[in-house]
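quick one, 168 residues, struct below
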Amino acid sequence: MMRKLLMTAVMVLTAGALLPMARAVAPAEVQKALQTDYNDRDGAVARKDIEGTLAHYAPDFTSVSTAGKAHDLKEERADFLKTFRLSAKSSVTKSTIQKVTLGKAGTEAVVAVRRRGILLFVNSQTQLNDVLVLDGAYQDTWAKRGGSWLLTREQASSLKATMNGRPL
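---
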């Protein structure tokens, strides 16, 4: 009886020791999952789908501009709504991951990402189309919560904007 109990304990401890290795996540797997999330967001932007655009954002999301100005998810939602409903005739974004760095526990990822956005507006004065192009580099922080990756922080490191080909 004691031997059987000892064998069971050894099996449980051995399985418990191997469990973290079995759950370890490779950076390539995380990059693939996050690129899918970025692609989902980019598609939602093109559809002007606010819920789809923000689907991968954490409730405690913070965005920080190149000037250091921070805003939260509520403000991010308002900015997207304004762009989608009031300003942009169409919008397209393309986000491309440059590098993923995983935290030790594998539940946080810092992502260097490049994003290009093209927005088509109707100029209210001329009634002609204006094209705004935004090219930016960002450092995004993602956290694994409830089995999903959620964007918790977006830090713009550079942003170049042109209107109809002219720098802004």
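Helices lie at 2-23, 27-47, 50-53, 73-87.
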